[in-house]
Amino acid sequence: MTENRTGTLHCSMDWDDKPREACGVFGVVNNNGFDIARMVYFGLYALQHRGQESCGIAVTDENGAITGHKGLGLVSEVFSDKILDRMEGRIAIGHCRYSTTGGTSIENSQPLMANYKNGPMAIAHNGNLVNAGKIRRTLEESGAIFQTSTDSEVIANLISRYGIQTGDLEEILSMIMEQVKGSYSLVLMTRNHLIGMRDPWGLRPLCIGKLDDSIILASESCALDAVGADFVRNVEPGEIVFIQGAEIRSIRKAVGSQPRHFCIFEHIYFARPDSFIDGASVYRARLEAGRRLAIEHPVDADLVVGVPDSGLTAAIGFSRQSGIPYGEALIKNRYVGRTFIQPQQRMREQSVDIKLNALREEIEGKRIVMIDDSIVRGTTTRKLVQMLKNAGAKEVHMRVSSPPVRFPCYFGIDISCTNQLIAAQKTIEEIRESMGADSLGFLSVEGLMKTPVGACETGFCTGCFTGKYPIELGPEGFPVE
Ligand code: SF4
User: Fold this and answer.
1) Mean pLDDT over residues 414-421, rounded?
2) Per-residue confidence band for 62, with pLDDT thresholds at 50, 70 and 90
3) Is the pTM of this model over 0.85?
4) Which residues are CB-neighbours of 351 under 8 A, at least 6 positions away?
5) Is 268 in the pocket of ligand 1 (CB under 6 A)?
6) So what's the pLDDT on residue 4?
7) What is the pLDDT of residues 73-86, one digit of tens each?
8) Which of 363, 416, 464, 465 is deepest in the core (most CB within 10 A)?
9) Is residue 373 a part of any domain in this protein?
10) At 201, is the pLDDT very low, low, confident or very high (cuts 50, 70, 90)?
11) Judgement on whether residues 250 and 344 belong to the same structural domain of the protein
12) Overall number of domains in the chain
């Protein structure tokens, strides 16, 4: 997310000019003698798109203690067979992380492991607490010590604090849910329980799966598919689920206490297209966005192309609706990976050449419609328009399957500096001109709201498009702590 503990704005973005997701979480209660560490490993592997800076797995050992392994880098880099062989247990959780609060450091990687009055616990968190700074200051004033700069540690400290008053974890977590504000899809483990907890707005996803008698929690259903588990249901906004053995007990104190505000950007870009979230297929939502875009911004053209990979599905939807053939015009180098080095603006522009190349045979002499899922800074889009024109495109019509991003996100997505958001600085016509496109059209907010087919149509956060957030903002434009 956006605001760190000093109240300043954290501002970085992926080198391909896409905002970044905060984290993926995964947890298992192993009732079938599975290789639990490898199950979490493959679950995290499937969630790697949600965070690539660090990852970790925590397991209960035979004595009921919780041990873990964490590191900076991709799941495939942090874990080896030797490490996984050492991690045996009945309950395990895992986490992959992109730092939105707190920096990239091993201390800030998760799961966070701690001992409190009632025993050991481990926590993995996806989201951002908007009042974490205030709670942290209060805890520090009363003597609490923090080892990380993450808001997840604030939750661990609250568990410890309330654990003095009661040994009932259900009561402790219900008190925490009343106190913390913001986005959180959490998986927690104690020596006996796996627990899932989703914020009352339902900003981030969390679902339950089952493999034989073993119960799984995951950020997205694609991670259940990866381990061969069946989808059971979503954790509801405001719900806490306690899993012990094969039993799932639900605490629904805050269910329905807030209108549902699932992050619509999950459907646009963050989630994997093969995931189902809150009843809606991400793939179908992207197809539908392309279809609606063709209705809202029709154009005479010869070929529809998508920006790999995130614009491809919407491009297929645009093509089907418009009748304009769909083709490949931009070829992606599949071996360009993530980097810890944040390039300078000039480097960032050059990096598009490394990642994507134009297919002249498909492009030359044609009027092209190029579809992308979103435009944030605009640097990549400008470069791609030029690339198509250099490859002989007669016209390039840019279509975007989401509305202009004009406002920051406070809930765990790295969209923070409005001065770097092209749509916050320029009109649509100025953006078109700066990109050198022949025309430019964005999907409307109303159109976007209709794209997650099968989901609750009014239950989305659209803050970065509309400036209307589910949580009240203070006079300085930040959420009220
Ligand atoms: S502000 Fe945008 S990115 Fe953030 S939660 Fe809302 S819709 Fe998602």
Assistant:
1) 81
2) confident
3) yes
4) 15, 16, 343
5) no
6) 33
7) 999 999 999 999 99
8) 464
9) yes
10) very high
11) no
12) 2
Q: Measure Cα distances from 344 to 2, 309, 352 in Å.
A: 20, 23, 13
Q: Within this chain, do residues 224 and 306 fall inside the same structural domain, yes or no? A: no
Q: Count CB-CB contacts under 10 A for residue 376.
A: 23
Residue 10, both tokens:
């954290």
Testing ligand 1's pocket by substitution, the residue of 2, 10, 98, 411 carrying the most ligand atoms inside 8 A of its CB is 411
Ligand 1: atom nearest CA of 264 is: 7
Same domain, 242 and 203: yes
Domain coverage including residue 435:
286-451
pLDDT by residue (tens digit) across 1-15?
A: 333 332 333 344 444
Query: Last residue of a domain, which of 258, 276, 306?
Result: 258
* Number of helices followed by number of strands (H, E) in the chain: 17, 23
Q: How many angstroms does the Cα of residue 415 sit away from the middle of ligand 1?
A: 8
Q: What are phi and psi of 55, to 5 degrees?
A: -155, 165
Domain contains 421: yes
Neighbouring-strand partners of residue 370: 305, 398
Asked if residue 272 belongs to a domain, the reply is no
Of 20, 184, 264, the one to substitute when testing ligand 1's pocket (max ligand atoms within 8 A of C-beta) is 264
Helical residues (DSSP H) of 21-151, grouped into ranges: 36-46, 75-78, 81-86, 132-141
Q: How far is the CA of 344 from the centre of ligand 1 (A)?
A: 26
CATH of the domain at 399: 3.40.50.2020
CB 376 within 8 A of CB 405: yes
Of the candidates 434, 443, 441, the one whose C-alpha atom is nearest the C-alpha of residue 380 is 434
The answer on pLDDT for 173 being more than 80 is yes
Q: How many residues does the chain have?
A: 481
* 57 contacts 87 by C-beta, under 8 angstroms: yes
Instruction: Specify the CATH number for the domain of residue 154.
Output: 3.60.20.10
